[in-house]
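Quick one: structure tokens for this chain, please?
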Amino acid sequence: MKKRFFLLTAMLLVSFMASAQLIKDRSNGLVTMGFDLFSDINTGSKYENFNLRAINQGFDAYLTYNFPMGDSKHTVSLGGGYSFHNYYMKGAWLAEPYAHNIEFTEATVKKSKVCFHYMDIPLEVNFRIADKFKISFGAKVSFLIQANSKAVGYMYGDGHKWEVKYNNINAVESIIYSSFARFGYRSVNLYIGYQFTSPFKDGRGPQVLPFSIGIGIRPY
């Protein structure tokens, strides 16, 4: 199973890079396609019965149009994309996702998470150095597509292992704001992001303000 997963991932990566390079070549470098794999670290305040694990993997993909800054190789980019954040809870699960206030219940769980899917509109400034190095700073507004949860474990105390999924969560923000930076060499870059808005409504759920760090790929 693991070999198949890594093989599929490698095939998707090669296909993505080929498509991104084709778009870049045909648009004369005015269109950029890329993605980031990252982990979220919560910088928000602690919440009753709620603790995140150390690694909370997430993903984003984007397509931007690049506006040249005069005769330089620097650009300002505007585009669209998709992102999702997974928040894994330790020793707790979301038992009542449709309640007015979101609370997490202590339980013996193997896996417990909430996941947020967004449509992004990023705006960034790109600086190219010596044609191999690139530094980008930007911000984005994200619109919620779906929020869902999943828990696997012994949540009901009856000795049976359950798997419970919910495809909707109440008391979540429909729009969030974040900033990001990328430090790249050729097609690989270090990705850093910070989300200013908690995915849960203020006073109705935990304050989750993720600091993201990971690796990204885009041809340039």
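The radius of gyration is 19 Å.
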